[in-house]
Each structure stands twice: as structure tokens, then as C-alpha cells.
């Protein structure tokens, strides 16, 4: 009934955006990890400026009291062979295993519009239309999850705007058609709210199957503009649809989310992942806003 089994991490996408490298392109790896530590976080995910040499990365993180907790994996089970997916997946597993991480994240990007600047995120989202398409997708994901499980790492699948797993209905089907010992959820309150779902109800429903948590807030006026103007996901991010928990411009009920976590047996990481334009939202300033807010709600 407390948060003693919870660690607080942060994603580098707040400093340097993987999908839009021009956002935060001026921010270095050293600045990113130094400010993560300065803001009071103890773990992080992996960004495009992180060195891939294990010893170099470990030394940089150890100096700052940080460790790797997860990394995004781009599943392409809808567009590439299982063998190709397995090759990329196991290579990332090797890296995460060497870094001591216990979770591998990511979502289905093969038929997604999330990275396309000019495709409306709601109207152009990925879709699995037939039972055969769902069976192929969930079979592949389940097999990859089994590979990860055998190495002591949990596959935490990220429901994501623009993808074939965006809504709670799609999340239900994904979880129902995969083995709970092989496939877990990377819960993200911001993406559920963006999708028109109730993030508190979603967490209550999925907390028992959740292996990793992302927390971000949503600026409702920007989200309304996404609907009205049929904007893409990337455009929404650039216009500030996301912000950090603790920002008064946000709209998500975080006290209820933390109450749900407190009442569960969830253990692992809660990660601040609120991608914004660093030129408009100073990453350190916003990381500190969220860190103070997390302390208020959890005591950690």
C-alpha cells in the first residue's frame, strides 16, 4: 500500500525528439543525462543521442546515479517478416540485458501514421481489419515476448496514437489474444486520453497486466484543435498537445492514477515521458515541475 517498490525515471524525448530530430537537436547527451539527475530522477529510457558502447554509456550514467529502465522497440509485425522482427528485437534485448534493464517497450509502427507529418492521426491510424491480420500480429508479439521472458525481460507493449493499438477496445484484444506471461502493457495515460479514453478507468482495468508506466499530461485546447483541423500526431506534439504532470495547463486526474497504483501490487518504473518542443518548454524546468508533483503525490 505504498510506493517503496516504485522507481521514478524519465525519457530523453523531453530533450531530444527521436521522431523529429530538429526538436532539441542542440541538446547534447551529456546535458540530457545531467539534467535528468539534477531534476531528481534515478533512471531513464534511451534516446537517439545515447552512446551505444556499453562501457561508455554505463560510465556516463553511473557518474550521475542513473540506470536504463527501458527502450522503445519499433515492432513491424504488420509489414515485415517475423524473422526480421526477431533479429531487431533480439539485438535490442542484448543491449538492454547488458544495461541491466528488465523491460523492453515499443509499439507497432509498421502500419502506423505516428511518424508521418501530413497524415491526420485519427483518420490515418493503423488498422487490423481481419481476424487473420490480428492473429498474425498477436502470434508474432507473443513469440517475441516468450524470447524476452526467457531472458528475464518483460515485453511491455505501448498502445500509441496512430497505431493499430490505440483504443481500449484494441488494447483489450491485444491482451486477450496474447499470453499474460509473455506480453504486458506499457500503460500511458496521455495516449489513452488522446484516444478519447478515460485514463483512470484504463489503469484500473490494466494495472494487473502492466509492466511499465509512462505519465504525461494533455493540453485539452490543443487536442481539440487536433480534431478540428485533422492534425497529424507530430504536428500535435509540435503544437504542445503534451505537457508534464503538475503543469496547471494539463487535464488528467493524476491523484486518482496514483491512488490506483498505491492500491495495486505494481512494482517497477514510473517514467515521465512528455514530449514537447524544448525551445518552448525548457526540459529541466518541466522535469523539475513533474518531479516536485510526483513527490507531493507519492512521498518519493
Automatic annotation (TrEMBL):
Source superkingdom: Bacteria
Keywords noted in UniProt: Lyase
EC annotation from Swiss-Prot or TrEMBL: 4.2.1.44
The Xylose isomerase-like TIM barrel domain, residue ranges: 36-295
Gene3D superfamilies per the UniProt record, alphabetical: Divalent-metal-dependent TIM barrel enzymes (3.20.20.150)
Cross-referenced Pfam families: AP_endonuc_2
Gene Ontology molecular-function annotations: myo-inosose-2 dehydratase activity
Name of this protein: Myo-inosose-2 dehydratase
InterPro entries to which the protein is assigned, alphabetical: IolE/MocC, IolE/XylAMocC-like, Xyl_isomerase-like_sf, Xyl_isomerase-like_TIM-brl
Enzyme class label: lyase
